[in-house]
Amino acid sequence: MYSKTMPRAGRLSTRQKRVFAAIGVLVVVLLGGLGLWGALSSDGYGASGHGCVNVTIASSTGGATLHYCGAKARSFCQQSYQNSDEISRKARPQCALAGISPSPGTSAAS
Q1: How many CA atoms lie within 13 A of 80 on its CB side?
Q2: Do 28 and 53 belong to one domain?
């Protein structure tokens, strides 16, 4: 009813159109930037190496990443070489990528 008594009520002025266009462009640029950042940024837990071990395991919420560096990584890997559970079997190749081998006298369980 209001638009019938005030014919210009439903129309936007040129200034309002520019403001909406500028906001729209800003939103598109922001979303595009976030998408590029997500696609191209490096993953801190991506691959094992340089003394750090990353193992992805099944979890009650889908999946979990075990991440160890330094002394903790060496301890984790030595335990994985001694045990034969599923996590240990998945950890051994990652330990090798990190450059951590079984200690002498430790036989890798199969």
Answers
A1: 24
A2: no
Which of 65, 2, 60, 69 lies closest to 77 in space, CA to CA?
69
- If asked whether residues 75 and 100 sit together in one domain, one would say yes
pTM (2 d.p.): 0.57
For residue 83, what is the DSSP state? Answer: -
Residue 34's domain comprises: 2-40
d(CA 66, CA 3): 62
Helix pair angle (70-82, 86-97), 10° resolution = 130
Q: Give the pLDDT confidence of 73-96 residue by residue, as tens digits.
A: 999 999 999 998 999 999 999 999
The answer to whether 40 and 32 are in contact (CB under 8 A) is no
Average pLDDT over residues 26-39: 94
What is the biggest distance separating any 2 CA atoms in the chain, rounded to whole angstroms?
93
Q: What DSSP element (H or E) covers 69? A: strand 62-69
Is residue 63 located within the same domain as residue 109?
Answer: yes
- Separation between Cα atoms, residue 99 and residue 80, nearest integer Å: 14
**Does 105 score more than 70 pLDDT?**
no
